[in-house]
Automatic annotation (TrEMBL):
It comes from the Bacteria. It holds the Pfam family DUF2017. InterPro entries: AosR. Residues 205-214 have a biased composition (Gly residues). This is Uncharacterized protein. Residues 195-214 are annotated as: Disordered.
Length: 214
């Protein structure tokens, strides 16, 4: 993969890079997995007469049992925010009410971002050219993928490097690669300086110590 570049100015700004075929397949596979999880969560949400009448979707009132979905759709209130609420039913009621009202919109936003990534990924590898709005969607989807992988790896803060023979070592390589891709995309979005299109032979990120090892 080549690093992200901000090209153009004003309404013509594009955030550009180039992805190898295997990188596109990897990203598409992970985004599709997230999409399946979110769609299943949405489809199993309760339906009532009021939501059918008004068209306003009602979400689950309980947090997901699945660890990955729990990372993607966390509680709105955390015990460490107001410790005095932990022991009573107030926190559970608060989370349940907020989740029921807001979770459908959150899922829709995540699915929309995932759809943008799938629509803008080159099928067999190649150039990626994003508007700033599309790049924001990529950031959302990359965050969700990293959250899902983080749940698998048990990452709560900065991950420690797993030994090469660990069953999840390859997943951590992917996690680290996604972190770099996302960080460089943020830098490109924040850059206000116009960048000349680069020489195709330059700017290859390579795999180095952080890239996925295949």
């Amino acid at each position: 993969m080549r690093t992200w570049r901000r090209i153009g100015a004003g309404d013509d700004v594009r955030i550009c890079s180039n992805l190898e075929n295997y990188e596109c397949q990897l990203l598409a596979s992970m985004v599709e997995s997230i999409t399946e999880l979110l769609n299943e969560r949405s489809e199993t949400a309760p339906r009532d007469a009021l939501s059918e009448l008004t068209g306003i979707a009602t979400g689950h009132s309980r947090a997901p049992d699945d660890v990955t979905l729990g990372r993607l759709l966390p509680d709105f209130h955390r015990p460490d925010q107001e410790p005095e609420m932990v022991a009573g039913p107030i926190a559970a009621d608060l989370n349940g009410g907020l989740r029921s009202v807001n979770e459908p919109q959150i899922i829709d936003a995540k699915l929309a971002a995932a759809g943008v990534v799938l629509d803008t990924l080159p099928g067999d590898g190649g150039d990626v050219s994003l508007t700033e709005e599309q790049a924001d969607c990529w950031l959302t989807a990359l965050t969700d993928i990293r959250l899902a992988l983080g749940a698998m790896l048990g990452i709560t803060d900065e991950p420690s490097k797993l030994p090469p023979d660990h069953p999840h070592a390859a997943h951590q390589d992917v996690y680290d690669w996604l972190s770099v891709v996302q960080g460089l995309l943020v830098e490109a979005l924040m850059s206000a300086e116009w960048t000349q299109p680069e020489d195709p032979s330059q700017g290859d990120l390579g795999q180095g110590d952080w890239g996925p090892q295949w």
